[in-house]
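Exercise 7.
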Amino acid sequence: MIYRLRIILDNDTKEDILRDVEIDKNSNLTDLHELILLSFNFSADQMASFYTVDEDWIQLNEISLMNFDESTDSMDSVLIANILNNQYTKLLYIYDFMNMWTFYVELIEEAKEINNIIYPRIILSIGDVPKKAPEKKFTSEDDEDEDLGEDEYLY
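Solution. The predicted structure, written as tokens, is:
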């Protein structure tokens, strides 16, 4: 069986930038990482991680390219089918932590393999990848509060 996945670049333009891919569901996350690099024309010289997420895309657990300690799993040790299924259909993928290329990965459907088709493969490509990573705007709870003025924080 294969998974059809949609991979969307989180960007600050009006243009959608996405790829639909097909990959054997028993492939590991390293295979998916390499497919994402290929489909967006990135080099393999940067670190990357997948993150399991909830329905609102809130990060839960990191799965890194390389295992640095016992606190995270490595991509080569995790099968796609073990983290994507009917209940959990989303992953977050971050490539190049200095530039923070951020991608939303979502399971579209599970399907039977087609004879004579070589997997993994890119089945749809929309939009051109910008030359530099889209800027990220990080907010905190303090940013959401009203501006109370400098003096009110002293007490």
